[in-house]
Design brief:
alpha/beta, four-stranded antiparallel beta sheet, seven-stranded mixed beta sheet, about 20% strand
Length: about 290
Amino acid sequence: MERSLPPRKLDSLLKPFAAVRAGLNTAFKSARSGMPLPDGLTSAGTTRTARQQRRNGYLNQYLRYFPERLAEAKWMDGCRITGLERLHAARQNGRPVVLAFCHFGPFFLLRSWLRAAGIPAAILVGGKPEHRSKLTQLFYRFVPFPEVPTVFYLDRLRDATAFLTAGNPLLIAIDDDSGKQMELPFSEGWTFRMATGAVRLAVRHQAELISCTIIDEGCWRFRIELGRPVPREFLTSESDWTCAGEHLLGEMIPHFRAHPEQCARTLIGCLRKNSAAAAPDVTRMVD
């Protein structure tokens, strides 16, 4: 069906199945249920809106089943990438690139769309290879650049750094709860707990550190935003790394505020409400 139908018709055909699944999945809970959020991340959501978001999420999952097809013109026309010249410039200058992302929008499609655009990106994740389903591992073989790994696990960090220093972009989540963390100001009365892995890798390997955000615009149309690279003076062993973290967060927050419904629970879980006593100290490192 994917080969014979344009994306819009395929979307219309699969939408009822995704809608049924969204309606039946009553176990799904909104990340915002019963918890306060910073101004700008709250939305007047309804049950219908939440169900539509779940439906769109299930529709986006279908794209994982044919990653090699996303490079076709009919699919690439539905994915705009802003700031791609920054990534190309870094690679042309022989500089490694770390792409920092959050669990926002259809983040699981980031590496597939980047590969479809000719960028052999991979992702660093926690866990071990055997924890991934056989089906997922099978689909990894059909992405563009199949000879280039698509995923690295923390227990094989040496392979990931070799991949990075060879000039390939490496995607790393900054809203992960593993490893060292730092707390950054998010908005008045709120902080964001950020994993430092992306910053530390960029410092260690003198890599460009660029924010990477994907936005779901509906009907299988997406936008990937590659932010301004973190200034080099923020990425030295002597610098205050919170400056690098604040730069990354500053590039992403406007997208969070524009599309609060696309903030995943992992991202929401990094937000902390300041107590009066803790408010002055919001950039401390956390082990």
